[in-house]
Amino acid sequence: MAADQLDAVFGALADPTRRAILSRLTRGEATVAELTTPFDVSQPAISRHLKVLERAGLISRTRLATARLSHLEAAPLRDATKWLAAYREYWEESFDRLDELLATLEDDDGGSPSGESKGERGTR
């Protein structure tokens, strides 16, 4: 995924209203009026949110008679998830190393991660 596209996706996802719109679109296409209903904002405000989502590639819009329908495009979300997966691997490896270090410290200190020997525990 290109850096500009990734920036646009994360920028679009930064807003809770846009995330809620995407969530609604998982159930199927919707008009601007249908997307406006659950929010305390105007139709023009929802239209601006839709333009941000469209520029990010997260939705596509089609016309059916006089209605403009918005449709979820999941591919950019999949690509962003793949990008994030590399960081998940990094953190899992970091936690594994931390677990190994803690296990070593426990073995060296007689089982206590705080460094107290068995005789010192509970005497404070």
Notes on the protein architecture:
The protein starts with a helix and ends in a 16-residue tail after the last helix. It is built from five helices and three strands, in the order H-H-E-H-H-E-E-H. It is elongated. The protein is mainly α. Strand 2 and strand 3 form a beta hairpin. A three-stranded antiparallel beta sheet has the order 1-3-2.
In short:
By secondary structure, the protein is mainly alpha-helical. It contains 5 helices and 3 strands. A 3-stranded antiparallel sheet has the order 1-3-2.
Please name the defining characteristics of this protein:
124 residues, 5 helices, single chain, 3 strands
Topology:
Blueprint lengths: L2 H11 L2 H10 L4 E2 H5 L6 H13 L3 E6 L2 E6 L2 H34 L16
Antiparallel strand pairs: 1-3, 2-3
Q: Which segments are poorly predicted (pLDDT under 50) over 5 or more consecutive residues?
A: none
pLDDT averaged residue by residue: 87
Radius of gyration: 24 Å
Q: Strand content of the residues, in percent?
A: 5-15%
Widest β-sheet, arrangement of strands: 1-3-2
Shape: elongated
SSE string, helices as H and strands as E? HHEHHEEH
Q: Number of DSSP helices?
A: 5
Helicity range of the residues? 55-70%
